[in-house]
């Protein structure tokens, strides 16, 4: 006999598990289905983000940053280290422990909020008078019926045509997080978030890293001034980034991977590396969902078609996160999950795409919210800009990291903040002030007149706001 629920969530990543918890908080009888497995075959809730994305990559970034600091910067502080070495196996073990803590934490949250968890693959079977029948394929097969269904099945790494992932030589984000030894030469195709972060990890540990990017500009989605500043820092670190390339045949052999490519001048080149990470985007994960069984509409990319409220083509079926339109960001998925749960309860859930922050966790970090200068120019919008370098910030000097700047863009007439862009230390944390300000439609003067603690990196935010009106105090 099938088990009846008010809400069934398919997928236990950031969008799914948050949607399930919020729906349970609102009084619904909720089930969540997720098929991720840990090394022992048990449940590994958290989706790509927790298992092979956001969380493990940040663990490796932190370990490699510590190693880099010890090897190149501790001496500046009077700390003398001899015999410095990196135990890659221990680093990976720590990463796995951090992942497990997050996996277990979500299971605890499900118990706390009375969300019923099913470990397996959820598939639409049919529509019925009671709602939608969902089959669970796993160690304990089951059949569930839900009045409402929220699809949060995430995305998968896009493979390079003719070069499928083997996770040994040609790596997706998954394999990139499990490299057991520092490769002498590492190649990356794609200079997006995953490529830059993984390239940074292994470059710090001693790899010669070459990044091949098809686009003629570096980080095209980032404000051009900020992207140029970041590129200068990466070049100085030894990260070799080739732009405007055309990748040809990729061959694997016993010693590694050979990539034929053409540079921006049309000259044929060959890149020989021990490992190749391919990070050319992600595709919605809808294969095996059973969309055809119930008539759920997908677009040409395989994404689920939704309206502005995350409603699909079917009544009482919703979809959130990477499997729908919009940026493939964990925090965007979480906000959509909360909003959908509240809409099911008759409330007015809301997600403002204009204030979704973006972060690249390299060193320097890159973070931004709102529009870039090139977008404002393209739209013909009159604006004012203000920048402030971390070089003139006392806390950054004390940290020993003065790379980068904070940049404000504000409406020329109203002074409303239209975008904030940061490259430098702790940009991921500093951007939150800008998100709050933009949600309240603050002006740059509002930030300029707020007292910021001294000495702090956040003073650079205040000074950049002051710079919009050409009245910085410390530069």
Plain-language structure description:
This protein has 475 residues and is of the alpha/beta class. The chain has three domains: 3-156 and 283-351, FAD/NAD(P)-binding domain; 170-280, FAD/NAD(P)-binding domain; 357-468, Enolase-like, domain 1, CATH 3.30.390. It has 14 helices and 22 strands. It has helices spanning 14-25, 47-52, 54-72, 88-113, 173-176, 193-204, 224-237, 291-294, 330-344, 373-379, 394-399, 427-439, 444-448, 459-468; strands at 3-10, 30-34, 116-119, 121-128, 131-137, 142-151, 155-157, 170-171, 185-189, 208-212, 240-242, 246-252, 257-262, 268-273, 275-278, 282-284, 317-319, 358-360, 365-370, 383-389, 405-411, 417-424. The strands form five sheets. Strands 1, 2, 3, 4, 5, 6 and 17 form a seven-stranded mixed beta sheet that branches. Strands 8-15-9-10-11 form a five-stranded parallel beta sheet. Strands 18-19-22-21-20 form a five-stranded antiparallel beta sheet, sandwiched between helices. A hairpin with a 2-residue loop joins strand 4 and strand 5 (131-137). Helix 1 packs parallel to helix 4 (88-113). It is globular, with a radius of gyration of 24 Å. The mean pLDDT is 97.
Task: Looking at this protein, list some descriptive labels.
single chain; 475 residues; alpha/beta; FAD/NAD(P)-binding domain; 3 domains; 7-stranded mixed beta sheet; 5-stranded parallel beta sheet; 32% helix; 25% strand; globular
Provide mean pLDDT, rounded: 97
Query: Strand share of the residues?
Result: 25-35%
Q: Which secondary-structure class do the elements indicate?
A: alpha/beta
**Radius of gyration using CA atoms only:** 24 Å
Low-confidence stretches: none
Care to count the β-strands?
22
* Count of domain modules: 3
Task: Give the CATH topology of the largest domain.
Answer: FAD/NAD(P)-binding domain
Q: What's the level 1 CATH class of the largest domain?
A: Alpha Beta
Which range best describes the helical content: under 10%, 10-25%, 25-40%, 40-55%, 55-70% or over 70%?
Answer: 25-40%
Question: Tell me about the biggest sheet?
Answer: 7 strands, mixed
What's the CATH superfamily of the largest domain, by name? Answer: FAD/NAD(P)-binding domain
Please give the alpha-carbon distance between the first and last residues. 71 Å
**What is the name of the CATH architecture of the largest domain?**
3-Layer(bba) Sandwich
Shape: globular
Query: Number of helical runs?
Result: 14
């Amino acid at each position: 006999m099938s088990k009846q629920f008010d809400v069934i969530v398919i997928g236990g990543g950031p969008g799914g598990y948050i949607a399930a918890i919020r729906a349970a908080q609102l009084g619904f009888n909720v089930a969540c289905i997720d098929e991720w497995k840990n090394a022992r075959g048990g449940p590994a809730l958290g989706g790509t983000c927790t298992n092979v994305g956001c969380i493990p990559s940040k663990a490796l970034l932190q370990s490699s940053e510590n190693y880099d600091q010890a090897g190149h910067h501790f001496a500046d502080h009077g700390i003398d280290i001899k015999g410095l070495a990196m135990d890659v196996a221990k680093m990976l073990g720590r990463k796995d422990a951090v992942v497990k803590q997050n996996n277990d934490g979500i299971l605890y949250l499900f118990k706390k909020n009375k969300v019923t968890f099913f470990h397996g693959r959820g598939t639409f079977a049919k529509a019925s008078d009671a709602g939608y029948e969902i089959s669970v394929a796993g160690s304990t097969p089951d059949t569930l019926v839900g009045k409402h269904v929220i699809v949060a099945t995430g995305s998968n790494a896009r493979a390079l045509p003719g070069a499928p992932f083997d996770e040994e030589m040609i790596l997706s984000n998954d394999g990139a997080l499990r490299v057991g030894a520092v490769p002498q030469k590492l190649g990356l195709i794609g200079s997006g978030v995953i490529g830059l972060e993984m390239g940074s990890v292994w470059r710090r540990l001693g790899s010669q890293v070459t990044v091949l990017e098809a686009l003629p500009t570096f980080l095209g989605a980032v404000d051009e001034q900020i992207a140029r500043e970041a590129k200068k820092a990466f070049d100085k670190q030894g990260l070799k980034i080739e732009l405007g390339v055309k990748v040809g045949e990729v061959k694997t052999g016993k010693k590694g991977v050979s990539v034929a490519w053409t540079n921006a001048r049309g000259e044929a080149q060959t890149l020989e590396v021990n490992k190749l990470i391919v990070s050319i985007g992600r595709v919605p994960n809808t294969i095996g969902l059973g969309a055809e069984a119930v008539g759920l509409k997908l677009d040409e990319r395989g994404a689920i078609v939704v309206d502005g409220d995350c409603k699909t083509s079917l009544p009482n079926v919703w979809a959130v996160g990477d499997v729908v339109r919009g940026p493939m960001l964990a925090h965007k998925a979480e906000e959509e999950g909360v909003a959908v749960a509240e809409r099911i309860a008759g409330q007015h859930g809301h997600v403002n795409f204009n204030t979704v922050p973006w972060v690249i966790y390299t060193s320097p970090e890159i973070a931004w919210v709102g529009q870039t200068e090139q977008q404002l120019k393209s739209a013909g919008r009159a604006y004012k800009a203000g920048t402030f370098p971390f070089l003139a910030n006392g806390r950054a000097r004390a940290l020993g990291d003065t790379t980068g700047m904070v940049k404000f863009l504000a409406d020329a007439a109203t002074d409303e903040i239209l975008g904030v862009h940061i490259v430098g230390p702790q940009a991921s944390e500093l951007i939150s002030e800008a998100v709050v300000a933009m949600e309240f439609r603050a002006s740059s003067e509002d930030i300029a007149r707020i007292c910021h603690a001294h000495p702090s990196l956040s003073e650079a935010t205040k000074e950049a706001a002051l710079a919009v009106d050409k009245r910085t105090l410390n530069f």
